[in-house]
């Protein structure tokens, strides 16, 4: 029996070939959703599990056009994509989730903050910084200290510089052409995270709230579910914002727990490390929810498989790794 190549309109394209694209593809397989990825190398994590792989660059318009003409819908492994190039290369009729304009607003820390302020979502005080005069003003506004964050393409601590008690390295301004924002230090008690999914038809599900531990500006572990007396009110505002901007897909929120309540630290318009637990802790994973949202498929209810869960993110290269012969959990190695 020969292999039946899927019809173009049925194929979901994923821009990127890393671990998140791999996990999205693996969630699509049981649903019978054909997936194609645009990856830089055949040895990347996603091409190892996806039959329809296009090798190319997300920065090359010829590669983008060639790839996008073969799919019926497209989503993203990362928000760090060139929106202008995608708009030029996107064929008519190809569905995109989340929408390009929405990703463009969130991928820039300045417009992301403006989005939160516009929808009256609590976040830390901030100030736009483009030059040394702005940096001087930030010192005056935030005498206790602030974080200087690169507006675009910053992640896992990259593009982030600390100014404690007004003291910091001014040469940081020369390390990015994208501009910065200064964000006041927040004396938080703990870090929390939540992911909310909104479908093309407007349906919404909220995954369990979790505590998050960061090491070297990277997500080290999460555990949950947790409860917070101020979360229900914040959740309503987050869902209202997603509805207002017609967000489709999963949106991750990183939160600070403070004495006065919860603040939104950052947004990520994609599947996120803080919700990896959903692969084995919930009856439906964040990856499946994201695909269902973009394709208009019904949402299963959010159900815990056990009363509690925890996830540890293993990072590193080389060296010896030892695991229990009967680990009480699941390993995802990529």
Mind explaining what this structure looks like?
This protein has 334 residues and is α+β, with helices and mostly antiparallel strands. 24% of the residues lie in helices and 26% in strands. The protein is built from 9 helices and 16 strands. The protein has helices at residues 19-28, 61-68, 83-89, 100-107, 109-118, 132-141, 231-244, 278-281, 286-295, and strands at 12-15, 35-39, 52-55, 73-76, 95-96, 126-129, 145-150, 160-164, 180-184, 190-198, 204-206, 210-215, 218-224, 249-258, 261-268, 309-312. The strands form 3 sheets. Strands 10, 11, 12, 13, 14, 15 and 16 form a 7-stranded antiparallel β-sheet that branches. The protein has a 5-stranded parallel β-sheet with strand order 3-2-1-4-5, sandwiched between helices. It has a 4-stranded antiparallel β-sheet with strand order 6-9-7-8, sandwiched between helices. A hairpin with a 2-residue loop joins β14 and β15. The longest helix has 14 residues, at 231-244.
Layout of helices and strands:
Layout lengths: L11 E4 L3 H10 L6 E5 L12 E4 L5 H8 L4 E4 L6 H7 L5 E2 L3 H8 L1 H10 L7 E4 L2 H10 L3 E6 L9 E5 L15 E5 L5 E9 L5 E3 L3 E6 L2 E7 L6 H14 L4 E10 L2 E8 L9 H4 L4 H10 L13 E4 L22
Helix pairs in contact: 1-9, 2-3, 4-5
């Amino acid at each position: 029996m020969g292999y039946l190549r899927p019809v173009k309109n049925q194929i979901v394209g994923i821009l990127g070939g890393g671990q998140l694209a791999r996990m999205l593809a693996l969630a699509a397989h049981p649903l019978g959703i054909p997936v194609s990825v645009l990856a830089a190398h055949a040895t990347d994590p996603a091409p190892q599990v996806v039959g329809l792989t296009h090798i190319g660059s997300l920065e090359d318009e010829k590669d983008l056009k060639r790839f996008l003409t073969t799919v019926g819908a497209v989503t993203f492994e990362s928000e760090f994509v060139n929106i202008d190039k995608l708009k030029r290369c996107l064929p008519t009729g190809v569905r995109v989730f989340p929408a390009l304009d929405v990703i463009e607003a969130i991928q820039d820390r300045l417009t992301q903050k403006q989005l939160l302020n516009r929808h009256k979502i609590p976040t830390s005080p901030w100030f736009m910084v483009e030059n040394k005069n702005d940096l001087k003003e930030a010192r005056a506004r935030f005498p206790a200290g602030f974080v200087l964050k690169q507006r675009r393409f910053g992640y896992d601590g990259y593009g982030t510089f600390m100014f404690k008690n007004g003291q910091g390295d001014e040469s940081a301004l020369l390390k990015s052409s994208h501009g910065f924002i200064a964000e006041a230090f927040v004396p938080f008690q703990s870090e929390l995270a939540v992911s909310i999914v909104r479908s093309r038809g407007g349906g919404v599900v909220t995954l369990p709230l979790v505590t998050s531990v960061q090491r070297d500006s990277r997500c080290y572990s999460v555990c949950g579910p947790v409860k917070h007396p101020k979360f229900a009110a914040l959740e309503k505002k987050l869902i209202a914002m997603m509805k207002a901007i017609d967000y489709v897909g999963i949106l991750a929120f990183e939160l600070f727990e403070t004495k006065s309540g919860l603040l939104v630290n950052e947004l990520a318009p994609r599947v996120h490390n803080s919700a990896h637990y959903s692969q084995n802790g919930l009856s439906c994973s964040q990856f499946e929810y994201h695909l269902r949202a973009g394709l208009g498929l019904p949402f299963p209810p959010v159900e815990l498989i056990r009363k509690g869960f925890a996830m540890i993110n293993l990072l590193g290269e080389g060296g010896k790794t030892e695991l229990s012969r009967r680990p009480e959990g699941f390993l995802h190695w990529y």
